[in-house]
Amino acid sequence: MSLFTRTTELKRFKRGALPKIAIAVLLVIPLIYGALYLWAFWAPTDNMNKLPVAVVNLDQPTKAPGGKTLAAGSDVVDELLAGGDLDWKLLDAAEAERAVADGEVYFAVTIPRDFSSTLAGLQDDPKAGQIEVQYNDSNSFLASTLGKTAMVQLRDAVAETATETAAEQVLAGVEKLSDGTRQAADAATTLHGGTTTLAEASAQLGAGLTELSEGTSQLASKAPALAQGAGRLADGTSQLAAKAPELAAGTARVAAGASELASKLAPAAESAPELLSGFEKLNAGSAQLAAGTGAIAQIAAANPDMTLAQLDAALQSKGLSLQTVAAGATTMHDSVAASLPSVQALAAGLPLASQGANDLASGSALAASGAAQMNAAASQLAAGASQLNDGAGQLSTGAAQLNAGASKAAAGGTQLADGAKSLDEGASTFAKKLTDGAAEAPEFATGQGEKIASTIAAPVQLNEHTENAVQGFGEGFAPFFIALASFVGALITWLILRPLPRRPLASNVSGLRSVLAGFGPAALIGVGQVVIMMLVLVYAVGMQPVHWASMAGFMLLVTLAFLALQQMFIALLGTAAGRVVSLVLLMLQLSSSGGTYPVETTPGFFQALHPFMPASYVVTGLRQLIGGGVDARFWGSLIVMLGVLVGSLAISAVAARRQKVWTVARLHPSLAI
Predict the structure, then answer these.
(1) Are the C-beta atoms of 222 and 397 separated by less than 8 Å?
(2) SS3 assignment, position 661
(3) Where residue 171 falls among pLDDT bands split at 50, 70, 90?
(4) Contact 293, 322 (CB under 8 A)
(5) pLDDT band at 503 (very low <50, low <70, confident <90, very high)
(6) In this structure, are residues 150 and 158 in contact, taking their beta carbons and an 8 Å threshold?
(7) Handedness of CA 334, 338, 344, 347 (dihedral sign)
(8) Rounded Cα–Cα distance for residues 108 and 85 (Å)
């Protein structure tokens, strides 16, 4: 080994600790690059449970066929939270939209309001339930890609549950139909029993009706016995016939008397108006007489010397006086006036009495005629009654037998009624159960069965929307590779150019001017790198950034910042150590910037480094400039990169000022490239 070290380039690394450290670093550089990268991305998909994703449940539970409440949205959310495949954040719609836009979550899953009602209505309106997914490529293209894969798995898992729900609905109808069919079968058995009972009762009814027929035959054969009873009836009718002439004569006399009464009442009725008129005149005259005599009596009493006194004396000789006559006249008038209503009633009633007498005469004549006809028919009635009497006895005997047969027929009829009732109840139950089963059975329109089948096969669909979409993996990974290219470009630039030219360091210029003397040429090359890169990316590769001019400006800032950062490392640590640190930083940025897999899927070490890596902000800024949707994250990235540029130049200026003092270590560095 000593011979090897004396005769090779390695002999320069014998002196001091730093060269030996450099050798150690050279030995582990491949390991650092390989191991760190493999460690960072060893199994990112195994850490998807750390990927923050919003879930929004807007679903409204509904009644499924059969009365069961279906809350498919809540079931899906419960499964997601319990499964833990992703870091689900249960948010409302507004919070989820803001979180996706701000990058707090990578994407959002929304279960719409009609999710349960859609799944519950597969029989009536077969259509797939929709799960809405909103991505944002500005957050991470690969996160969106991984999310789409996860959403397919979610869709299949939810579809399995939805298919089970749909199958339950269809099978519920089939089960109810089966229940109805079984109940209908039971009803049919009952119906069969009723028909058997009905058949037996019908047989008994037939026997009873046969006996009834025999009884009616006996009744017909004994009909002559009815004549005996009719004979007795004939005797009575003969007596009626004997008395009929007397009845006819009596009614004739009544008719004659009624005619005579009518003839007498007719003149009286005609004189009734005259009678009423005379009586009314009498009433008026008596009133005048009473008034006159009363007046004479008053005059006579007042003038006893008048000639009326003679008259009064004559009346007194007969036991009267003018006052007595006046009182009698008044009394007569009162009697006549009191009798006037009776006379008026008599005068009004005489015409009615005359009309009644005429009606009585007519009725009596009709009665006499009827009595004569009855007298003529009495003999015929007696003859018929004699014949009826002859068969009455036989009819009585036959009627008894008929009654016995009819009783048996009634008993059979009762049994028949019971059997018919059982038959009716069984038939009613049978019809009801069949109707219930038919109502529960699925009824599909033309083509609806195929729609239900296809919907059950895929009951859930993803309605995916991507905000700030990029063109596939090329634009999706462009921020990461542009950041890598800018850093490597700066690294190669400082391999060719001197970060700190010796002439300015040897002069009296400030440290900043010494730094800018080296930084200026590198910056010009950086401008060329950015121009060439943008032209090739846009016109050759086909990238279509939304904000291409801003992207070019931001890329120039990133290139300058990386140049200044690496210049700072060289100014502080020396050329060799500074470049080694730049290489290590490059590897750390590759594995912790989140440019490929989301940083949440990497080990905790890289998650801790992520906020301190400049490339993290380069990736974030370029994502928003390429895909669109510029927000506060871009402006934060812009400020960070400006800070890296200015801060690195400032630190390099301080380091350059210190290097104006030459030391033995600077003249003979232990490690130089």
Answers:
(1) yes
(2) coil
(3) low
(4) yes
(5) confident
(6) no
(7) negative
(8) 14
Whether residue 461 lies inside any domain: the answer is: yes
Q: Longest C-alpha distance within the chain, in Å?
A: 215
Residue 283 and residue 158 in one domain: no
641 with 492, same domain: the answer is yes
CA 194 to chain centre: 44
Alpha helices (H) in 222-321, listed in sequence order = 226-302, 308-317
pLDDT of residue 3: 46
Could you tell me what percentage of the chain is helix, strand and coil, using 3-state DSSP and rounding each to the nearest 5? 80, 5, 15
Are both 505 and 397 inside the same structural domain?
A: no
Predicted local distance difference test score (pLDDT) of residue 5 = 46
DSSP state of 546: T
pTM score:
0.56
CA distance linking residue 21 with residue 27, whole number of Å: 10
| 409 three-class SS | helix
What sign does the dihedral 642-648-651-652 (CA atoms) show?
A: negative
- pLDDT at position 446 is 57
Name the amino acid, one letter, at 446.
Answer: T
Residue 513's identity, in one-letter code, is R
Cα distance between the two ends of the chain: 23
| 534/659 same-domain check | yes
Residue with tokens 């800032």: 557
Do 155 and 133 form a contact (C-beta atoms < 8 A)? no
CA dist 324 → 309, 315, 329 (Å): 14, 9, 9
For Cα atoms 5, 6, 10, give the angle at the middle one, nearest 5 degrees: 40
* CATH code of the domain covering residue 86: 3.40.1710.10
Query: How far, rounded to the nearest angstrom, does the alpha carbon of residue 595 sit from its chain's CA centroid?
Result: 49
- Tell me the two tokens of residue 79: 């499964």
